[in-house]
Amino acid sequence: MPTILDIPPIEVVENLRLLSEDLDAKIPSKKLDKNLLIATWNIRAFGDLTRKWDSVGTDSPKRDLQSILCIAEIIRRFDVIAVQEVKANIRALRDTLKVLGSHWSLILTDVNKGDSGNGERMAYLFDTRRVNLSGLACELVVPNEWYGTIDANALNEQFVRTPYAVGFRSLDKTFVLVTLHIKYGSNASDRVKELKGIAKWLADWAGDMNAYDQNLIALGDFNIDARGDLLDNTFLSEGLSVPPALQDPTVTRSIFNETKYYDQIAWFNNHQHLPNLSMEFIKAGNYDFVPLALQNQNLSKLSLSWHISDHYPLWAEFAV
């Protein structure tokens, strides 16, 4: 049985070469003392894997060793990436770290219990040559006083998957990332309440000048079906901003439906009463891995979603 550190078959090596060349062309390169690349990616059911280079129809899970090499090749292009849907079983995550190398590290939460939590964790993977932990790690918990207010959008229960805030440092710049995976379902009001609760929490934190840091960036799977009022009435109404580059309809989130706005990266910008992000934003985008990842396996999109993901990674570049 092969392992992730074995020499891959020649067709796997060739596919990785093509994927790497495409990433070189579409993702900004890491520039020493110049830039910072922050990303978010919902990697579908990122848990177990089949220890074969090419899984077959009867194998479960479908994710195989070549899939891990593709995932790692994408992740290594960023300095820090928030990952959603990491499962209780972290075999695939461990193999990904082995491929990334000893200069990569991670921090992750425990498993979210309950049916709605879907047995998921939140995780950050980061390149320690470029980014290090600054000392803060916490989960966002809504105060009891916020429950039962007259606001129809107020939360009346805790988050299904608790948002996870972690502080990082790059050179002399510190920043706090808050990753989230909003509850999904046919009832959009549930998503509004979670988004509103997180946005209010972030605004409250940013407004406290004695807090750990005011460079706050929220990122993750917001489970927003359409751009419209759901985002306007939650994050944007509390002063958070999504850069125009990520509101462009060509920057898609789902490999199945280009109209979905599931994943987002947001921060405070041009706000008169709250500290704004002090890092200079350069550009942002997604990465479409569908044409090249596992090209040699000739997979359907549905099968590819279980090998890699049903979400594209979303990224933002900042000057430091």
TrEMBL record:
The UniProt keywords, alphabetically, are: Endonuclease, Hydrolase, Nuclease
Instruction: Kindly give the CDD domains that the UniProt entry links to this protein.
Output: MnuA_DNase1-like
Instruction: Say which domain of life the source belongs to.
Output: Bacteria
List the Pfam families.
Exo_endo_phos
Native source species: Aequorivita soesokkakensis
Q: Which residues form the Endonuclease/exonuclease/phosphatase domain?
A: 39-234
Cited InterPro entries:
Endo/exonu/phosph_ase_sf (IPR036691), Endo/exonuclease/phosphatase (IPR005135)
This chain belongs to the protein called Endonuclease
Q: Does the keyword Hydrolase apply?
A: yes
